[in-house]
Amino acid sequence: MNAPFDPARSAPTDAQIRLAAQCRDGTAPRDSRDISTVPASVYTDAGRFLLEQAKLFHALPVVIGPSVMLPQPGTAMTQDGFGAPLLLMRDARGVLRIFLNACRHRGTRLVDAPEPTETPMVICPYHAWSYGLDGQLKGVPRPETFPGLQKPAMGLVEIPAREAGGLIWAAPHRKAGIDAPDFTLAVGPLAADFDALGLGAMHLYARRTHKVASNWKLIMDAFLESYHVQRLHRNSIARFFEDGVTAGDVVGPHMRSAVARVGGLDGVDLADWPALRRIVTYAYQLFPATVLVASPDYVNLMVLMPQAVGETLVEDFMLIPEAPTDEKAKAHWAKSWALLDGMVFGTEDFGAAQAGQRGLASGAIADLTLGSLEQGIRRFHETVEAQLAR
Ligand code: FES
Ligand SMILES: [Fe+2]
Asked: What separation in Å is there between the alpha carbon of 126 and the centre of ligand 1?
């Protein structure tokens, strides 16, 4: 295990400092187009959803979760939300690989382990073929009945996966070594920011999967503008934030933003990371469908798994600096989890996405209208369009 993350021993990246300075000085570049629109059909058209599945979710690397979801060597877990049965395994040396959860003998599902499970190997329940955590076929009962079987060629089917900045990225619908996608733009550009946040050394406090009756992009939209914070979140977190004091930039296909919290940035040493995090909340929209929100002392990672045009699973992971050791710490984190996962995301943001889906499905409006505080949404949709046109 890594040492617990200590924000006082880490430093913000230049980009994180730059966005904070733009919030403080009011110098964030503003989009010249004040009003733009998004067609309602991109959220409601079933054919469009299938195209997004093919061009985005079956083609590009996506975030599977934080590395600390599988923290210990010699562990395995399953994940079924991405439309392929995934088996994540971290071997004795700590190397993570992801395989399809299907036996090479007759295809049987091998493991049901939604939580990380310690195991030296995987044994198929049907005829007990056994596999190492590196996916290699180790043993076949009654081997004389399989004359000529090439065991080295009968390992589990691996999918392309990478770890960087404390996140696990993978391409669940591709095959490792045959048609792996380019991970450069996925894992590269923001890893330094995530290392500064200490993602890979944090403790996974809780995870929960929400079933949201909305198109996946309506959920992304809620994390691409700060316009709603003082309105939708008026009874929860609005009091912590300035209204619309924000700065952001585009990093490859992803977006990074900083939102100023009340208290003001004047006089704050922007290189003092704990002080900076108390006064700025950073959010990251990782293309295509992951959101990371860095609160002052914890991080929420939300992984969106579209299931249908109007249905999305969202797995919310809350990472904290270290496992709580006393009752006071336990109560503190339980309160943060209830506020963010229960109320802000679970009830308010996802509730707004569901209400949006119902309204759009009625055909009431042909286009959604975006103001100057919502241009992050426009940029995101332009990135989606560009990817679909490839
Ligand atoms: S199907 Fe797995 S051992 Fe037969
Ligand atoms: Fe929100």
From this structure: 5
